[in-house]
Specification:
alpha+beta, Alpha-Beta Plaits, four-stranded antiparallel β-sheet, two-stranded antiparallel ribbon
Length: 96
């Protein structure tokens, strides 16, 4: 299984990449910071300074329908915010 699943391209992530040279990725839930750093460095050919990880909890929803209550929840996702060394950039749109 791959450690880096996909890059996260949102307005907030794009702003962080322009201002602070930080890029966001969705990663495997079992990956640690060292594995994430090595995977990003080998996949994109850049040097990583710092890795921050976030585990986004499941969002629970309840809906009232004709047949009764419908309960659901979203998946748990682990995100990594990777800060690159000064002067280095990533072109996320080239690999899509």
């Amino acid at each position: 299984m791959s450690i880096v699943i996909r890059p996260i391209i949102t307005e907030k992530a794009s702003s962080a990449s322009e201002r602070y040279n930080r890029y966001s990725f969705e990663v495997a839930p079992s990956a640690n910071k060292i594995e994430i750093k090595n995977a990003v460095e080998s996949a994109y050919g850049v040097s990583v300074e710092k890795v921050r990880t976030i585990i986004v909890r499941a969002e629970r929803r309840t809906r009232n329908t004709k047949t009764g209550l419908q309960r659901s929840k979203s998946a748990v996702v682990k995100k990594a915010i990777v800060q690159l060394a000064e002067g280095e950039t990533l072109d996320l749109y080239a690999n899509l």
